[in-house]
Protein backbone atom coordinates (compact mmCIF):
# COMPACT_ATOMS: atom_id res chain seq x y z
CA UNK A 1 0.00 0.00 0.00
CA UNK A 2 1.32 3.45 -0.88
CA UNK A 3 0.93 6.19 1.71
CA UNK A 4 1.07 9.71 0.31
CA UNK A 5 3.05 12.44 2.10
CA UNK A 6 -0.22 14.12 3.13
CA UNK A 7 -1.63 10.91 4.64
CA UNK A 8 1.50 10.10 6.60
CA UNK A 9 2.19 13.68 7.64
CA UNK A 10 5.69 13.62 6.16
CA UNK A 11 7.15 16.56 4.31
CA UNK A 12 9.12 15.18 1.37
CA UNK A 13 11.91 17.51 0.17
CA UNK A 14 12.87 17.88 -3.45
CA UNK A 15 15.83 15.70 -4.43
CA UNK A 16 17.60 17.24 -7.43
CA UNK A 17 20.77 15.18 -7.11
CA UNK A 18 19.40 11.63 -7.01
CA UNK A 19 21.00 9.35 -9.59
CA UNK A 20 18.89 6.25 -10.31
CA UNK A 21 20.77 3.19 -11.49
CA UNK A 22 19.87 -0.32 -12.58
CA UNK A 23 22.27 -3.15 -13.29
CA UNK A 24 24.44 -5.69 -11.56
CA UNK A 25 24.21 -5.48 -7.76
CA UNK A 26 26.65 -6.44 -5.02
CA UNK A 27 24.60 -6.85 -1.82
CA UNK A 28 23.86 -9.55 0.74
CA UNK A 29 20.41 -11.14 0.55
CA UNK A 30 17.72 -10.74 3.20
CA UNK A 31 18.55 -14.09 4.80
CA UNK A 32 21.38 -12.38 6.67
CA UNK A 33 18.91 -10.54 8.93
CA UNK A 34 18.21 -13.87 10.65
CA UNK A 35 21.57 -13.45 12.39
CA UNK A 36 20.27 -10.68 14.66
CA UNK A 37 16.56 -11.63 14.67
CA UNK A 38 17.17 -15.11 16.12
CA UNK A 39 19.08 -13.55 19.00
CA UNK A 40 16.29 -11.10 19.64
CA UNK A 41 13.54 -13.73 20.03
CA UNK A 42 14.95 -16.83 21.76
CA UNK A 43 11.62 -18.71 21.56
CA UNK A 44 11.46 -18.34 17.76
CA UNK A 45 13.11 -20.42 15.04
CA UNK A 46 13.95 -19.34 11.49
CA UNK A 47 13.79 -22.18 8.97
CA UNK A 48 15.21 -21.18 5.60
CA UNK A 49 13.83 -23.17 2.69
CA UNK A 50 16.79 -22.99 0.34
CA UNK A 51 20.02 -24.46 -0.92
CA UNK A 52 23.32 -25.44 0.65
CA UNK A 53 24.61 -22.03 -0.39
CA UNK A 54 21.91 -20.42 1.79
CA UNK A 55 22.97 -22.62 4.72
CA UNK A 56 26.65 -21.74 4.29
CA UNK A 57 25.84 -18.01 4.04
CA UNK A 58 23.92 -17.85 7.31
CA UNK A 59 26.37 -20.13 9.11
CA UNK A 60 29.29 -17.95 8.03
CA UNK A 61 27.55 -14.67 8.81
CA UNK A 62 26.49 -15.86 12.27
CA UNK A 63 29.83 -17.41 13.13
CA UNK A 64 28.04 -20.33 14.84
CA UNK A 65 30.02 -23.52 15.30
CA UNK A 66 28.55 -26.64 13.71
CA UNK A 67 27.93 -28.40 17.02
CA UNK A 68 25.95 -25.49 18.49
CA UNK A 69 22.15 -25.44 18.72
CA UNK A 70 21.24 -22.14 17.06
CA UNK A 71 17.69 -20.95 16.52
CA UNK A 72 17.90 -21.08 12.76
CA UNK A 73 18.44 -23.77 10.16
CA UNK A 74 17.99 -24.64 6.50
CA UNK A 75 15.61 -27.10 4.90
CA UNK A 76 17.83 -27.87 1.93
CA UNK A 77 16.16 -28.22 -1.44
CA UNK A 78 17.87 -31.08 -3.29
CA UNK A 79 17.97 -31.89 -6.98
CA UNK A 80 14.76 -33.94 -6.71
CA UNK A 81 12.93 -30.98 -5.19
CA UNK A 82 14.24 -28.54 -7.78
CA UNK A 83 13.39 -30.92 -10.63
CA UNK A 84 9.86 -31.47 -9.31
CA UNK A 85 10.41 -35.21 -8.80
CA UNK A 86 9.85 -35.03 -5.04
CA UNK A 87 6.93 -33.21 -3.39
CA UNK A 88 8.65 -30.27 -1.72
CA UNK A 89 5.64 -29.61 0.53
CA UNK A 90 5.70 -33.15 1.92
CA UNK A 91 9.43 -32.86 2.53
CA UNK A 92 8.95 -29.50 4.26
CA UNK A 93 6.22 -30.92 6.53
CA UNK A 94 8.54 -33.78 7.48
CA UNK A 95 11.41 -31.42 8.30
CA UNK A 96 9.13 -29.19 10.41
CA UNK A 97 7.78 -32.21 12.28
CA UNK A 98 11.31 -33.44 13.06
CA UNK A 99 12.37 -29.95 14.14
CA UNK A 100 9.45 -29.38 16.51
CA UNK A 101 9.77 -32.81 18.09
CA UNK A 102 13.43 -32.10 18.82
CA UNK A 103 12.93 -28.46 19.84
CA UNK A 104 9.65 -28.30 21.82
CA UNK A 105 10.54 -24.85 23.20
CA UNK A 106 9.83 -23.22 19.81
CA UNK A 107 6.74 -21.00 19.96
CA UNK A 108 7.03 -19.18 16.63
CA UNK A 109 8.38 -20.76 13.47
CA UNK A 110 9.32 -18.52 10.56
CA UNK A 111 9.44 -20.19 7.15
CA UNK A 112 11.91 -18.04 5.22
CA UNK A 113 11.82 -18.04 1.43
CA UNK A 114 15.04 -17.97 -0.59
CA UNK A 115 16.01 -17.63 -4.23
CA UNK A 116 15.70 -21.41 -4.90
CA UNK A 117 12.30 -21.74 -3.20
CA UNK A 118 10.96 -18.78 -5.14
CA UNK A 119 12.36 -20.02 -8.45
CA UNK A 120 10.44 -23.30 -8.09
CA UNK A 121 7.34 -21.36 -6.94
CA UNK A 122 7.09 -23.08 -3.57
CA UNK A 123 4.18 -21.35 -1.81
CA UNK A 124 5.37 -20.91 1.77
CA UNK A 125 2.26 -18.88 2.61
CA UNK A 126 0.09 -21.93 1.95
CA UNK A 127 2.59 -24.09 3.80
CA UNK A 128 2.34 -21.81 6.86
CA UNK A 129 -1.48 -22.02 6.77
CA UNK A 130 -1.33 -25.81 6.54
CA UNK A 131 1.14 -26.11 9.41
CA UNK A 132 -0.81 -23.69 11.62
CA UNK A 133 -3.86 -25.91 11.20
CA UNK A 134 -1.84 -29.02 11.97
CA UNK A 135 -0.27 -27.68 15.16
CA UNK A 136 -3.44 -25.88 16.27
CA UNK A 137 -1.90 -23.01 18.18
CA UNK A 138 0.87 -24.89 19.97
CA UNK A 139 3.29 -23.30 17.50
CA UNK A 140 2.65 -20.20 15.43
CA UNK A 141 3.96 -20.51 11.86
CA UNK A 142 4.70 -17.38 9.81
CA UNK A 143 6.41 -16.89 6.48
CA UNK A 144 8.32 -14.17 4.68
CA UNK A 145 10.80 -13.77 1.84
CA UNK A 146 14.50 -13.36 2.49
CA UNK A 147 15.37 -13.95 -1.16
CA UNK A 148 18.21 -12.01 -2.72
CA UNK A 149 15.93 -11.58 -5.73
CA UNK A 150 13.55 -9.55 -3.57
CA UNK A 151 15.52 -8.06 -0.69
CA UNK A 152 18.80 -6.60 0.47
CA UNK A 153 20.08 -7.95 3.76
CA UNK A 154 18.45 -5.46 6.13
CA UNK A 155 15.12 -5.68 4.32
CA UNK A 156 14.86 -9.24 5.60
CA UNK A 157 13.99 -7.78 9.00
CA UNK A 158 11.34 -5.59 7.38
CA UNK A 159 9.75 -8.65 5.80
CA UNK A 160 9.90 -10.61 9.08
CA UNK A 161 8.25 -7.84 11.10
CA UNK A 162 5.65 -7.30 8.40
CA UNK A 163 4.66 -10.97 8.69
CA UNK A 164 3.92 -10.38 12.40
CA UNK A 165 1.68 -7.31 11.91
CA UNK A 166 -1.55 -9.23 11.06
CA UNK A 167 -1.25 -11.03 14.41
CA UNK A 168 -0.99 -7.86 16.53
CA UNK A 169 -4.01 -7.47 18.83
CA UNK A 170 -6.13 -4.33 18.51
CA UNK A 171 -6.06 -1.63 21.18
CA UNK A 172 -6.49 2.15 21.12
CA UNK A 173 -4.52 2.71 24.33
CA UNK A 174 -1.81 5.35 24.22
CA UNK A 175 1.60 3.78 23.75
CA UNK A 176 4.97 4.35 22.15
CA UNK A 177 6.01 1.50 19.86
CA UNK A 178 9.71 1.29 19.04
CA UNK A 179 9.98 -0.57 15.73
CA UNK A 180 13.24 -2.26 14.79
CA UNK A 181 15.79 -4.48 16.49
CA UNK A 182 18.15 -2.75 18.90
CA UNK A 183 20.79 -4.21 21.19
CA UNK A 184 19.07 -5.17 24.45
CA UNK A 185 21.15 -2.79 26.56
CA UNK A 186 20.53 0.12 24.19
CA UNK A 187 16.79 -0.54 24.13
CA UNK A 188 16.60 -0.71 27.92
CA UNK A 189 18.41 2.62 28.16
CA UNK A 190 16.01 4.26 25.72
CA UNK A 191 13.00 2.92 27.58
CA UNK A 192 14.36 4.22 30.87
CA UNK A 193 14.80 7.66 29.32
CA UNK A 194 11.27 7.64 27.89
CA UNK A 195 9.94 6.70 31.32
CA UNK A 196 11.88 9.67 32.67
CA UNK A 197 9.98 11.89 30.25
CA UNK A 198 6.70 10.52 31.57
CA UNK A 199 6.01 8.10 28.69
CA UNK A 200 5.30 4.98 30.71
CA UNK A 201 3.78 2.68 28.10
CA UNK A 202 6.68 1.76 25.78
CA UNK A 203 6.69 -1.45 23.77
CA UNK A 204 8.86 -2.95 21.03
CA UNK A 205 8.49 -4.74 17.73
CA UNK A 206 9.99 -7.30 17.48
CA UNK A 207 9.33 -8.28 21.10
CA UNK A 208 11.85 -10.27 23.09
CA UNK A 209 9.29 -13.06 23.43
CA UNK A 210 7.85 -13.79 20.01
CA UNK A 211 4.34 -14.48 21.33
CA UNK A 212 4.23 -11.31 23.46
CA UNK A 213 3.04 -9.14 20.59
CA UNK A 214 2.29 -5.47 21.23
CA UNK A 215 -1.25 -4.22 20.55
CA UNK A 216 -1.82 -1.68 17.80
CA UNK A 217 -4.45 1.00 17.22
CA UNK A 218 -5.26 4.71 17.13
CA UNK A 219 -3.36 5.46 20.33
CA UNK A 220 -0.12 3.94 19.04
CA UNK A 221 2.75 6.24 18.05
CA UNK A 222 5.39 4.49 15.93
CA UNK A 223 9.04 5.43 16.41
CA UNK A 224 11.30 3.74 13.85
CA UNK A 225 14.66 2.70 15.29
CA UNK A 226 15.92 1.52 11.89
CA UNK A 227 15.55 3.22 8.48
CA UNK A 228 14.87 0.05 6.49
CA UNK A 229 11.37 -0.76 7.77
CA UNK A 230 9.18 0.89 5.12
CA UNK A 231 6.82 -2.05 4.56
CA UNK A 232 6.28 -2.63 8.28
CA UNK A 233 5.70 1.07 8.96
CA UNK A 234 3.01 1.29 6.31
CA UNK A 235 1.31 -1.87 7.57
CA UNK A 236 1.19 -0.41 11.08
CA UNK A 237 -0.16 2.89 9.76
CA UNK A 238 -2.93 0.99 7.95
CA UNK A 239 -3.98 -0.37 11.38
CA UNK A 240 -4.45 3.14 12.75
CA UNK A 241 -1.03 3.89 14.22
CA UNK A 242 0.68 7.24 13.66
CA UNK A 243 4.29 7.60 12.57
CA UNK A 244 6.57 9.97 14.47
CA UNK A 245 8.70 11.80 11.92
CA UNK A 246 12.31 12.01 12.99
CA UNK A 247 15.87 11.38 12.01
CA UNK A 248 17.27 8.10 13.35
CA UNK A 249 19.13 7.60 16.66
CA UNK A 250 22.62 7.52 15.19
CA UNK A 251 25.02 10.01 16.73
CA UNK A 252 24.35 12.59 19.44
CA UNK A 253 22.21 14.83 17.25
CA UNK A 254 20.16 11.98 15.81
CA UNK A 255 19.54 10.31 19.17
CA UNK A 256 18.57 13.55 20.90
CA UNK A 257 16.15 14.57 18.16
CA UNK A 258 14.70 11.04 17.99
CA UNK A 259 13.84 11.16 21.67
CA UNK A 260 12.65 14.76 21.47
CA UNK A 261 10.21 14.03 18.65
CA UNK A 262 8.77 11.10 20.60
CA UNK A 263 8.28 13.33 23.62
CA UNK A 264 6.53 15.98 21.50
CA UNK A 265 4.14 13.36 20.13
CA UNK A 266 3.01 12.69 23.70
CA UNK A 267 2.81 16.36 24.68
CA UNK A 268 5.81 16.27 27.00
CA UNK A 269 7.30 19.66 27.86
CA UNK A 270 10.48 20.34 25.87
CA UNK A 271 12.28 21.72 28.92
CA UNK A 272 11.59 18.50 30.82
CA UNK A 273 13.09 16.44 28.00
CA UNK A 274 16.18 18.65 27.80
CA UNK A 275 16.79 18.23 31.52
CA UNK A 276 16.81 14.44 31.12
CA UNK A 277 18.93 14.18 27.98
CA UNK A 278 21.35 17.12 28.42
CA UNK A 279 23.88 15.10 30.47
CA UNK A 280 23.81 12.38 27.78
CA UNK A 281 24.27 14.91 24.99
CA UNK A 282 27.18 16.63 26.71
CA UNK A 283 28.88 13.33 27.53
CA UNK A 284 28.36 12.10 23.98
CA UNK A 285 29.88 15.23 22.42
CA UNK A 286 32.91 15.08 24.68
CA UNK A 287 33.50 11.42 23.80
CA UNK A 288 33.03 12.16 20.10
CA UNK A 289 35.52 15.08 19.96
CA UNK A 290 38.78 13.09 19.45
CA UNK A 291 37.25 11.04 16.64
CA UNK A 292 35.99 14.18 14.95
CA UNK A 293 39.59 15.42 14.85
CA UNK A 294 40.60 12.27 12.95
CA UNK A 295 37.66 12.34 10.53
CA UNK A 296 37.39 16.09 9.91
CA UNK A 297 37.82 16.90 6.21
CA UNK A 298 38.08 13.27 5.10
CA UNK A 299 36.10 12.29 1.98
CA UNK A 300 33.71 9.32 2.18
CA UNK A 301 31.85 7.36 -0.50
CA UNK A 302 28.91 5.05 0.38
CA UNK A 303 28.17 2.15 -1.93
CA UNK A 304 24.59 0.84 -1.52
CA UNK A 305 24.20 -2.08 0.84
CA UNK A 306 22.46 -1.67 4.22
CA UNK A 307 20.01 1.24 3.83
CA UNK A 308 21.74 2.85 6.81
CA UNK A 309 23.73 4.97 4.38
CA UNK A 310 21.76 8.23 4.59
CA UNK A 311 21.57 8.44 8.42
CA UNK A 312 25.25 7.51 8.62
CA UNK A 313 26.12 10.16 6.03
CA UNK A 314 24.21 12.76 8.03
CA UNK A 315 26.06 11.78 11.21
CA UNK A 316 29.51 11.74 9.62
CA UNK A 317 28.98 15.02 7.80
CA UNK A 318 27.34 17.09 10.54
CA UNK A 319 28.95 15.64 13.67
CA UNK A 320 32.31 14.42 12.36
CA UNK A 321 33.04 16.97 9.63
CA UNK A 322 33.45 14.46 6.78
CA UNK A 323 32.79 15.40 3.15
CA UNK A 324 30.27 13.28 1.24
CA UNK A 325 31.44 12.27 -2.23
CA UNK A 326 28.38 10.10 -2.96
CA UNK A 327 25.75 8.38 -0.85
CA UNK A 328 24.45 5.19 -2.46
CA UNK A 329 21.32 3.42 -1.19
CA UNK A 330 19.70 0.20 -2.46
CA UNK A 331 16.27 1.83 -2.26
CA UNK A 332 15.32 5.38 -1.30
CA UNK A 333 12.07 5.76 0.61
CA UNK A 334 11.53 9.49 0.29
CA UNK A 335 8.87 9.56 3.00
CA UNK A 336 10.56 7.95 5.97
CA UNK A 337 13.91 9.45 4.93
CA UNK A 338 12.56 13.00 4.56
CA UNK A 339 13.89 14.33 7.91
CA UNK A 340 17.33 12.84 7.20
CA UNK A 341 17.48 14.18 3.64
CA UNK A 342 16.62 17.67 4.87
CA UNK A 343 19.83 17.70 6.96
CA UNK A 344 22.24 16.70 4.19
CA UNK A 345 24.16 19.42 2.34
CA UNK A 346 22.28 20.70 -0.71
CA UNK A 347 24.92 19.45 -3.14
CA UNK A 348 24.95 15.86 -1.79
CA UNK A 349 24.93 13.31 -4.60
CA UNK A 350 22.61 10.41 -3.82
CA UNK A 351 22.45 7.29 -5.96
CA UNK A 352 19.48 4.92 -5.73
CA UNK A 353 19.92 1.35 -6.90
CA UNK A 354 23.16 0.04 -8.28
CA UNK A 355 25.13 -0.56 -11.40
CA UNK A 356 28.24 -1.79 -9.69
CA UNK A 357 30.64 -1.20 -12.59
CA UNK A 358 29.58 2.43 -13.00
CA UNK A 359 29.79 3.06 -9.27
CA UNK A 360 33.26 1.50 -9.04
CA UNK A 361 34.37 3.78 -11.87
CA UNK A 362 33.21 6.79 -9.83
CA UNK A 363 35.01 5.45 -6.74
CA UNK A 364 38.25 5.10 -8.68
CA UNK A 365 37.98 8.52 -10.29
CA UNK A 366 37.19 10.33 -7.02
CA UNK A 367 39.58 8.19 -4.91
CA UNK A 368 37.94 9.03 -1.54
CA UNK A 369 39.62 8.57 1.83
CA UNK A 370 37.11 5.90 2.79
CA UNK A 371 34.54 3.71 0.99
CA UNK A 372 31.72 2.02 2.91
CA UNK A 373 30.69 -1.14 1.03
CA UNK A 374 29.85 -4.82 1.23
CA UNK A 375 32.52 -7.43 1.93
CA UNK A 376 32.47 -8.64 -1.66
CA UNK A 377 33.82 -5.30 -2.90
CA UNK A 378 36.08 -4.42 0.01
CA UNK A 379 39.07 -6.65 -0.74
CA UNK A 380 39.32 -5.73 -4.47
CA UNK A 381 39.19 -2.03 -3.56
CA UNK A 382 41.79 -2.49 -0.80
CA UNK A 383 44.06 -4.15 -3.37
CA UNK A 384 43.79 -0.96 -5.44
CA UNK A 385 44.87 1.14 -2.46
CA UNK A 386 41.38 2.37 -1.53
CA UNK A 387 40.51 2.19 2.18
CA UNK A 388 37.19 0.48 2.94
CA UNK A 389 34.75 -0.17 5.75
CA UNK A 390 32.42 -3.20 5.78
CA UNK A 391 28.83 -1.97 5.94
CA UNK A 392 27.65 -5.20 7.55
CA UNK A 393 29.67 -4.44 10.68
CA UNK A 394 27.55 -1.34 11.20
CA UNK A 395 24.42 -3.49 11.38
CA UNK A 396 25.83 -5.99 13.86
CA UNK A 397 27.30 -3.36 16.23
CA UNK A 398 25.39 -1.49 18.98
CA UNK A 399 25.62 1.99 17.43
CA UNK A 400 22.36 3.68 18.47
CA UNK A 401 22.14 6.34 21.15
CA UNK A 402 24.18 9.26 22.49
CA UNK A 403 26.42 6.94 24.51
CA UNK A 404 27.30 4.97 21.37
CA UNK A 405 28.14 8.00 19.19
CA UNK A 406 31.87 7.77 19.89
CA UNK A 407 31.83 4.00 19.27
CA UNK A 408 30.10 4.63 15.96
CA UNK A 409 32.68 7.21 14.92
CA UNK A 410 35.50 4.89 15.96
CA UNK A 411 34.25 2.28 13.49
CA UNK A 412 35.15 4.72 10.71
CA UNK A 413 38.50 5.80 12.16
CA UNK A 414 39.80 2.22 12.46
CA UNK A 415 40.28 1.52 8.73
CA UNK A 416 41.91 4.94 8.30
CA UNK A 417 44.30 4.22 11.16
CA UNK A 418 45.04 0.77 9.74
CA UNK A 419 45.86 2.26 6.33
CA UNK A 420 48.13 4.82 7.95
CA UNK A 421 50.04 2.13 9.83
CA UNK A 422 50.44 0.01 6.69
CA UNK A 423 51.52 2.87 4.45
CA UNK A 424 55.11 2.64 3.25
CA UNK A 425 57.02 5.89 3.13
Automatic annotation (TrEMBL):
The alphabetical list of record keywords is: 4Fe-4S, ATP-binding, Chlorophyll biosynthesis, Iron, Iron-sulfur, Metal-binding, Nucleotide-binding, Oxidoreductase, Photosynthesis, Plastid
Q: Is Hydrolase found in the keyword set? A: no
Pfam families in alphabetical order: Oxidored_nitro (PF00148)
| Cofactor comment text | Binds 1 [4Fe-4S] cluster per heterodimer. The cluster is bound at the heterodimer interface by residues from both subunits.
Q: Where does [4Fe-4S] cluster bind?
A: 29, 54, 115
Q: Which Gene Ontology molecular-function terms are recorded?
A: 4 iron, 4 sulfur cluster binding; ATP binding; metal ion binding; oxidoreductase activity, acting on iron-sulfur proteins as donors; oxidoreductase activity, acting on the CH-CH group of donors, iron-sulfur protein as acceptor
As for family, the record states:
Belongs to the BchN/ChlN family.
Protein name as it appears in the record: Light-independent protochlorophyllide reductase subunit N
Species of provenance: Paulinella micropora
Ranked from the top, the taxonomy reads: Eukaryota, Sar, Rhizaria, Cercozoa, Imbricatea
Q: Which gene encodes it?
A: chlN
Amino acid sequence: MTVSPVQSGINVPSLPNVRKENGQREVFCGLTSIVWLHRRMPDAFFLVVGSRTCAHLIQSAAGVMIFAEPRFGTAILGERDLAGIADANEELDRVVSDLLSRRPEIRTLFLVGSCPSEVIKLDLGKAAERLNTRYNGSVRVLNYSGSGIETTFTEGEDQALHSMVPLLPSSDEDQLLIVGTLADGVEERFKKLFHGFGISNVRSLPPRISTDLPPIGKGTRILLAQPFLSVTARALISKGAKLINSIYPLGVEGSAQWMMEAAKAFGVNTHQVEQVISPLVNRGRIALAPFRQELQGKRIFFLPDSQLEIPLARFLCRECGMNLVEVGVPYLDRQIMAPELALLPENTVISEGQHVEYQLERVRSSFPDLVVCGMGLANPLEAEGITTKWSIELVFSPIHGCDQAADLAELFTRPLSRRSLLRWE
